[in-house]
Amino acid sequence: SYVLTQPPSVSVAPGQTARITCGGNNIGSKSVHWYQQKPGQAPVLVVYDNNDRPSGIPERFSGSNSGNTATLTISRVEAGDEADYYCQLWDSSSDHHWVFGGGTKLTVL
Amino acid sequence: QVQLVESGGGVVQPGRSLRLSCAVSGFTFSSHGMHWVRQAPGKGLEWVAVIWYDGSYKYYADSVKGRFTISRDNSKNTLYLQMNSLRADDTAVYYCARDPRGSGSHFDYWGQGILVTVSS
Known about the structure:
The structure holds two protein chains of two kinds. By secondary structure, chain A is mainly beta. Chain A is 0% helix and 45% strand. Chain B has strands spanning 3-7, 10-12, 18-25, 34-39, 45-51, 58-60, 68-73, 78-83, 92-98, 109-110, 114-118. Chain B starts with a strand and ends with a strand. Chains A and B meet through strand 3, strand 7 and strand 8 of A and strand 5 of B.
């Protein structure tokens, strides 16, 4: 089955740029989606199809995907961005499984 | 507005069964694939099952295959998850989520989640 690898944690100062990676075999050939989850809340979609944003998500959130790494970039980080972030894709090659990365805890210093 | 509301959770003994429901409103339920996703305490997200918009296809995570059954009633705008032979490692918050494209994509709306605790 397809495996997505994320760093357990990323730390960044307010106003700086946070980059959260998601590694997978030839992930650049797939559509990757990103979710933000704050404690006690349901996940929220922040980026879909590698680099599209749902309505209501700030332009500070963007994504890229190439080779074996997809990246969620959060510009001008705010205290309210502190959360867990998960990447996800649909693996059509293995009996139609939807796969999540292990999650990355973003800490705003 | 789009709403997904889970119900049916609680504490259940190992080996017993439980059925979760997800009542939806604010969109055309019969046009969308629907998923169950779970999250064990302190852990990450785990996809559980999907059902196509018309119920024609169903897929399951290996961890629940043969024990859980996903179904839907488009006349009642409701999604279900029948969970049999429950184990301690099924303890989790269970979310229902919508696939915006009917199948094979991402999750654009989520319910608030319902806790299932498997314990003797």
